[in-house]
Amino acid sequence: MVLKLKCTGDLTVDFVSSFFYSGNFIPHGHCYLWMPELVWLHILADSLIALSYYSIPLTLIYFVRKREDVPFKNIFLLFGAFIISCGTTHIMGVWTLWHPDYWLSGAIKAVTAIVSVYTALTLIPLVPQALALPSPAQLEAANNALQIEIIERKRVEQELRQYKEHLEELVEQRTTELAKTNELLQQEVIQRQQSQEKMALLLKELESTNKELNDFAYIVSHDLKAPLRGISSLSEWLVSDYADKFDDEGKELINLLIARVKKLYSLIDAILQYSRIGRIKEELRQVNLNDVVTEVTELLEPIENIQIDITNELPIVYGEKTRFEQLFQNLLSNAIKFIDKPQGKITIACTEKNGYWQISIKDNGPGIEKEHFERIFKIFQKLSDNKNSDSTGIGLAIVKKIVEIYGGEVWVESELGVGTTFFFTLKK
After folding, report:
1. Last residue of a domain, one of 133, 150, 183
2. Residue 335: what are its φ and ψ, rounded to 5°?
3. Spatial distance between the Cα atoms of 240 and 90, rounded to a whole number of angstroms
4. Least confident of 183-192, 220-229, 333-342
5. Would the CA dihedral through 7, 10, 12, 18 be positive or negative?
6. Which of 95, 107, 385, 420 has the smallest set of CB atoms within 10 Å of its CB?
């Protein structure tokens, strides 16, 4: 066993000795005839090339260590090995000037060839990836865009910070305002409770007052009507039993007295009607205004030269029938009473507007001056100064009160010498 190992060792030594054995080779210097200029030219050139080749891997290693983000680090190592191998071949070029170790030089060149081929083969597939890397111009443009974006983000962050500070101020201000508002609301609630209590007392007082007024109206009506009936009966008795005792002037005075008593009687009835509106409640039901107009027309019995027409169908409304009868009775009686034309014409029409029925009563009477449009709806306001007129000045006030109870409004349009149109609205 020992002999076998010894034989193997001898073979290895022999192989190495024969590998480095120059045999009968001559050094390269003989090829250059040992011309000093030529020899030194090759020595300096190969030495400088070798030094340059050795310095490049050192630079690459330094660069790769400083830049951890550099891609393709393996190719940098291969380049380093390739360049070191190339530098070593140039060192062997200097060495073989004096020592003809061409087998060693060839082996180093073979290693260099293997590293070169492997580096070339490794580099080829990396070319597309390297081409895909952004160029310095693209990197600069991206860097500039990134800088702009950073500046913009800083600006937005600054604005957001300012907005946040402003928002905090607004929240604090709003919280203060809400606290004040809440305090005001609490005060308002207290005031409303006090107002409701006062309103309840006022309603109670109003109910009591209305009852007293109602009783007072009936008492006054009874106390006033009783002597008026006596005066009327006495006047009629004088006319009947003492007609031959009175001259024409006396008879005229007695008739005037009777007319005045009847007028006062009518005035008391009108005041009672006005006072009952809104206080005396009737059954609420569906009321056909066409039937109401027909009944009122028959009750008023207009003279033959006055024509009353309904141009279109009047609506069916919900309310107290007596109130609608009073409404049309006052408007139609006024129209009939004041028509001054040989042929009188009264037209009743209805239109639908914004959830309301708008009803008009038009006549061809003398008309009303515009300055009196508002005054005629006030109680005891009359346009006629005729002392013998049976007008009480309450009819249009009753009309206005009834319309307003049902949530509508009333107004008049008129032209002197042409006629007058009264309008009123009722909720549908």
Report:
1. 133
2. -65, -45
3. 170
4. 220-229
5. negative
6. 385
Degrees, nearest 5: CA angle 8-14-15: 90
Kindly tell me the burial class for residue 215, based on how many C-beta atoms sit within 10 Å of its own C-beta (0-12, 13-18, 19 or more): exposed
CATH of the domain at 412: 3.30.565.10
Residue 59 sits at φ, ψ, to 5 deg, of: -65, -40
| Domain termination residue (choose one: 101, 133, 165) | 133
The CA-based angle 231-237-241, given to 5 degrees, is 150
Residue 285 phi, psi dihedral angles, 5° rounding: -155, 175
94 inside domain: yes
> Is residue 84 within 8 Å of 53, Cβ to Cβ?
yes
Residue 304 lies in a domain: yes
Are the C-beta atoms of residues 414 and 367 closer than 8 Å to each other?
Answer: yes
Half-sphere exposure of 91 (CA within 13 A, CB side): 14
Return d(Cα 12, Cα 415) in angstroms, integer.
145
For the chain, first and last CA: distance in Å? Answer: 132
In a domain, 222, yes or no: no
What does the alpha-carbon distance between residue 423 and residue 88 come to, in Å, rounded to a whole number? 123
- Asked, for residue 214, whether it belongs to a domain, the answer is no
Note the pLDDT tens digit of each residue in 105-162: 888 888 888 888 888 888 788 778 767 766 677 778 888 888 898 998 999 999 888 8
DSSP 3-state assignment of 222? helix
Number of domains in the chain: 2
Q: Which long-range contacts (CB under 8 A, 24 or more apart) does 389-397 make?
A: 390/262, 390/263, 390/266, 391/337, 392/263, 392/266, 392/267, 392/270, 394/267, 394/270, 394/271, 394/273, 394/274, 395/270, 395/330, 395/333, 395/334, 396/330, 396/334, 397/274
Residues in CB range of 101: below 8 A, 6 or more apart = 20, 22, 92, 95
Distances (CA, A) of 204 to 176, 190, 193, 208: 42, 21, 16, 6
Write the CA distances from 184 to 173, 196, 238, 274, integer angstroms.
16, 18, 76, 43
Distance CA 294, CA 332 (A): 11
